[in-house]
Design goal:
The complex is a heterodimer.
Chain A lengths: L3 E2 L4 E5 L4 E3 L2 E2 L6 E8 L6 E7 L7 E2 L2 E6 L4 E6 L8 E9 L7 E3 L3 E6 L1
Parallel strand pairs in A: 2-12
Antiparallel strand pairs in A: 1-4, 3-9, 5-6, 5-10, 7-8, 8-9, 10-11, 10-12
Chain B lengths: L3 E4 L2 E4 L5 E7 L5 E8 L3 E10 L2 E4 L7 E2 L9 E3 L8 E8 L9 E2 L3 E5 L1
Parallel strand pairs in B: 2-11
Antiparallel strand pairs in B: 1-3, 3-8, 4-5, 4-9, 5-6, 7-8, 9-10, 9-11
Classes of the chains: A mainly beta, B mainly beta.
Protein backbone atom coordinates (compact mmCIF):
# COMPACT_ATOMS: atom_id res chain seq x y z
CA UNK A 1 0.00 0.00 0.00
CA UNK A 2 1.15 3.51 -0.77
CA UNK A 3 2.31 5.31 2.34
CA UNK A 4 1.98 8.77 0.80
CA UNK A 5 -0.62 9.50 -1.85
CA UNK A 6 -0.79 12.66 -3.90
CA UNK A 7 -3.74 12.38 -6.25
CA UNK A 8 -3.14 15.53 -8.29
CA UNK A 9 -0.40 15.01 -10.88
CA UNK A 10 -0.79 18.60 -12.06
CA UNK A 11 -2.49 21.77 -10.93
CA UNK A 12 -2.97 25.21 -12.43
CA UNK A 13 -3.58 28.34 -10.41
CA UNK A 14 -3.85 32.00 -11.27
CA UNK A 15 -1.28 34.34 -9.82
CA UNK A 16 -2.37 35.81 -6.44
CA UNK A 17 -4.93 33.06 -5.84
CA UNK A 18 -4.69 30.35 -3.19
CA UNK A 19 -4.18 26.69 -4.05
CA UNK A 20 -4.46 23.45 -2.08
CA UNK A 21 -2.28 20.45 -2.83
CA UNK A 22 -3.63 17.20 -1.47
CA UNK A 23 -1.75 14.57 0.50
CA UNK A 24 -2.96 11.52 2.36
CA UNK A 25 -0.74 9.19 4.33
CA UNK A 26 -0.80 5.77 5.87
CA UNK A 27 1.04 4.74 9.01
CA UNK A 28 0.45 2.74 12.15
CA UNK A 29 3.08 4.69 14.10
CA UNK A 30 1.97 7.18 16.72
CA UNK A 31 5.02 9.36 16.24
CA UNK A 32 5.65 10.66 12.77
CA UNK A 33 6.47 13.82 10.91
CA UNK A 34 4.87 15.14 7.74
CA UNK A 35 6.81 17.40 5.42
CA UNK A 36 6.35 19.28 2.20
CA UNK A 37 9.17 19.91 -0.21
CA UNK A 38 9.37 22.03 -3.34
CA UNK A 39 11.44 20.99 -6.33
CA UNK A 40 11.87 23.71 -8.96
CA UNK A 41 12.97 22.87 -12.49
CA UNK A 42 16.59 23.40 -11.42
CA UNK A 43 16.25 20.20 -9.39
CA UNK A 44 17.06 21.07 -5.80
CA UNK A 45 14.79 19.88 -3.00
CA UNK A 46 13.63 22.71 -0.76
CA UNK A 47 12.01 22.08 2.63
CA UNK A 48 8.82 24.12 3.06
CA UNK A 49 6.87 23.09 6.12
CA UNK A 50 6.59 20.45 8.83
CA UNK A 51 3.67 19.02 10.83
CA UNK A 52 4.19 16.66 13.75
CA UNK A 53 1.78 13.88 14.59
CA UNK A 54 1.25 15.28 18.08
CA UNK A 55 0.69 18.86 16.95
CA UNK A 56 -2.81 20.13 17.56
CA UNK A 57 -2.33 23.33 15.60
CA UNK A 58 -1.87 23.46 11.86
CA UNK A 59 1.62 24.49 10.84
CA UNK A 60 2.22 27.77 9.02
CA UNK A 61 5.33 29.22 7.39
CA UNK A 62 4.76 32.50 5.60
CA UNK A 63 2.47 31.84 2.64
CA UNK A 64 2.48 28.11 3.31
CA UNK A 65 0.11 26.40 5.69
CA UNK A 66 -0.64 22.78 6.31
CA UNK A 67 -4.20 21.60 6.76
CA UNK A 68 -3.66 18.62 9.07
CA UNK A 69 -6.59 16.27 9.63
CA UNK A 70 -5.24 13.41 11.67
CA UNK A 71 -8.38 11.28 11.72
CA UNK A 72 -8.55 11.44 7.93
CA UNK A 73 -4.77 11.01 7.64
CA UNK A 74 -4.47 14.00 5.40
CA UNK A 75 -1.90 16.78 5.33
CA UNK A 76 -2.79 19.20 2.56
CA UNK A 77 -0.51 22.08 1.66
CA UNK A 78 -2.15 25.47 1.15
CA UNK A 79 -0.24 28.16 -0.72
CA UNK A 80 -1.80 31.58 -0.38
CA UNK A 81 -1.31 34.43 -2.86
CA UNK A 82 0.44 32.30 -5.47
CA UNK A 83 3.44 33.76 -7.24
CA UNK A 84 5.02 32.84 -10.57
CA UNK A 85 8.03 31.52 -8.65
CA UNK A 86 5.80 28.94 -6.97
CA UNK A 87 5.69 26.95 -10.22
CA UNK A 88 7.43 23.69 -9.33
CA UNK A 89 6.93 20.08 -8.27
CA UNK A 90 5.67 19.69 -4.72
CA UNK A 91 6.26 16.56 -2.70
CA UNK A 92 4.55 15.42 0.45
CA UNK A 93 6.75 13.19 2.63
CA UNK A 94 6.57 11.34 5.91
CA UNK A 95 9.16 10.22 8.41
CA UNK A 96 7.94 7.52 10.76
CA UNK A 97 8.61 6.14 14.16
CA UNK A 98 11.49 5.92 16.55
CA UNK A 99 13.28 2.93 15.09
CA UNK A 100 14.38 1.72 11.72
CA UNK A 101 15.73 3.58 8.75
CA UNK A 102 14.05 6.91 9.50
CA UNK A 103 13.88 7.49 5.79
CA UNK A 104 11.59 10.02 4.24
CA UNK A 105 8.84 8.37 2.23
CA UNK A 106 7.75 10.59 -0.62
CA UNK A 107 4.58 10.86 -2.61
CA UNK A 108 4.64 10.99 -6.40
CA UNK A 109 4.39 14.76 -6.43
CA UNK A 110 2.13 17.46 -7.83
CA UNK A 111 3.32 19.78 -10.57
CA UNK A 112 1.99 23.27 -9.88
CA UNK A 113 1.89 25.86 -12.62
CA UNK A 114 1.10 29.43 -11.70
CA UNK A 115 -0.38 31.43 -14.54
CA UNK A 116 -0.09 35.22 -14.85
CA UNK B 1 25.32 29.34 6.15
CA UNK B 2 23.91 25.95 7.11
CA UNK B 3 24.06 23.68 4.11
CA UNK B 4 24.54 20.27 2.57
CA UNK B 5 27.07 20.35 -0.25
CA UNK B 6 27.27 17.73 -2.96
CA UNK B 7 29.87 17.41 -5.66
CA UNK B 8 29.86 17.14 -8.56
CA UNK B 9 26.53 18.65 -9.61
CA UNK B 10 26.69 16.97 -12.99
CA UNK B 11 28.70 14.02 -14.25
CA UNK B 12 28.69 12.04 -17.46
CA UNK B 13 30.83 8.93 -17.35
CA UNK B 14 31.13 5.44 -18.76
CA UNK B 15 30.19 2.01 -17.53
CA UNK B 16 32.65 0.50 -15.08
CA UNK B 17 34.63 3.62 -14.22
CA UNK B 18 34.59 4.04 -10.45
CA UNK B 19 33.22 7.31 -9.19
CA UNK B 20 32.53 9.03 -5.90
CA UNK B 21 29.92 11.65 -5.15
CA UNK B 22 30.89 13.65 -2.11
CA UNK B 23 28.50 15.02 0.48
CA UNK B 24 29.39 17.36 3.31
CA UNK B 25 27.23 19.11 5.90
CA UNK B 26 28.23 21.91 8.26
CA UNK B 27 25.39 21.56 10.77
CA UNK B 28 26.94 18.86 13.00
CA UNK B 29 24.11 16.53 12.03
CA UNK B 30 24.24 12.92 13.16
CA UNK B 31 21.92 11.43 10.53
CA UNK B 32 22.82 11.45 6.84
CA UNK B 33 21.23 9.71 3.91
CA UNK B 34 21.45 9.20 0.17
CA UNK B 35 18.43 9.11 -2.14
CA UNK B 36 18.00 8.64 -5.84
CA UNK B 37 15.16 10.15 -7.83
CA UNK B 38 13.87 8.48 -10.97
CA UNK B 39 10.84 9.33 -13.13
CA UNK B 40 7.86 7.26 -12.14
CA UNK B 41 9.66 5.79 -9.12
CA UNK B 42 10.04 8.90 -6.99
CA UNK B 43 12.75 9.26 -4.37
CA UNK B 44 14.16 6.12 -2.82
CA UNK B 45 16.69 5.79 -0.05
CA UNK B 46 19.99 4.13 -0.98
CA UNK B 47 21.94 4.17 2.28
CA UNK B 48 21.80 6.00 5.55
CA UNK B 49 24.04 6.67 8.53
CA UNK B 50 22.90 7.24 12.09
CA UNK B 51 26.33 8.49 13.16
CA UNK B 52 30.05 8.11 12.54
CA UNK B 53 30.96 4.54 11.54
CA UNK B 54 27.28 3.52 11.57
CA UNK B 55 25.80 2.91 8.13
CA UNK B 56 23.01 0.72 6.84
CA UNK B 57 21.11 -0.14 3.69
CA UNK B 58 18.06 1.68 2.45
CA UNK B 59 15.60 0.56 -0.19
CA UNK B 60 17.98 0.30 -3.14
CA UNK B 61 21.57 -0.29 -1.96
CA UNK B 62 22.74 -2.62 -4.77
CA UNK B 63 25.70 -1.24 -6.66
CA UNK B 64 26.53 1.44 -4.10
CA UNK B 65 28.85 1.80 -1.14
CA UNK B 66 29.10 4.48 1.52
CA UNK B 67 31.37 5.37 4.39
CA UNK B 68 31.06 7.65 7.39
CA UNK B 69 34.52 8.23 8.84
CA UNK B 70 33.78 11.77 9.93
CA UNK B 71 30.54 13.31 11.07
CA UNK B 72 30.38 15.91 8.32
CA UNK B 73 31.09 13.70 5.29
CA UNK B 74 29.10 10.89 3.73
CA UNK B 75 30.42 9.96 0.27
CA UNK B 76 28.52 7.73 -2.14
CA UNK B 77 30.71 5.33 -4.10
CA UNK B 78 29.81 3.59 -7.33
CA UNK B 79 32.59 1.06 -7.81
CA UNK B 80 31.43 -0.20 -11.20
CA UNK B 81 28.70 2.12 -12.46
CA UNK B 82 26.11 0.82 -14.90
CA UNK B 83 23.55 2.65 -17.07
CA UNK B 84 20.71 1.77 -14.66
CA UNK B 85 22.41 4.01 -12.11
CA UNK B 86 21.76 7.04 -14.27
CA UNK B 87 19.70 9.19 -11.95
CA UNK B 88 19.42 12.33 -9.86
CA UNK B 89 21.07 11.78 -6.50
CA UNK B 90 20.46 13.66 -3.28
CA UNK B 91 22.32 13.70 -0.03
CA UNK B 92 20.33 14.75 3.03
CA UNK B 93 21.01 15.28 6.70
CA UNK B 94 19.13 15.71 9.97
CA UNK B 95 20.22 16.52 13.50
CA UNK B 96 19.21 13.00 14.61
CA UNK B 97 16.93 10.19 13.49
CA UNK B 98 13.97 11.87 15.19
CA UNK B 99 11.02 11.64 12.76
CA UNK B 100 9.97 15.18 13.67
CA UNK B 101 13.06 16.75 12.15
CA UNK B 102 13.12 17.71 8.47
CA UNK B 103 15.86 16.38 6.27
CA UNK B 104 17.90 19.09 4.58
CA UNK B 105 18.92 18.23 1.06
CA UNK B 106 21.91 19.06 -1.05
CA UNK B 107 21.33 20.53 -4.50
CA UNK B 108 21.51 17.14 -6.19
CA UNK B 109 23.93 15.38 -8.52
CA UNK B 110 22.85 14.41 -12.02
CA UNK B 111 24.70 11.26 -13.04
CA UNK B 112 24.65 9.87 -16.55
CA UNK B 113 26.31 6.49 -17.06
CA UNK B 114 26.87 5.66 -20.72
Amino acid sequence: AQKITQTQPGMFVQEKEAVTLDCTYDTSDQSYGLFWYKQPSSGEMIFLIYQGSYDEQNATEGRYSLNFQKARKSANLVISASQLGDSAMYFCAMREGLTGRRALTFGSGTRLQVQP
Amino acid sequence: EAQVTQNPRYLITVTGKKLTVTCSQNMNHEYMSWYRQDPGLGLRQIYYSMNVEVTDKGDVPEGYKVSRKEKRNFPLILESPSPNQTSLYFCASTQTGDPHQPQHFGDGTRLSIL
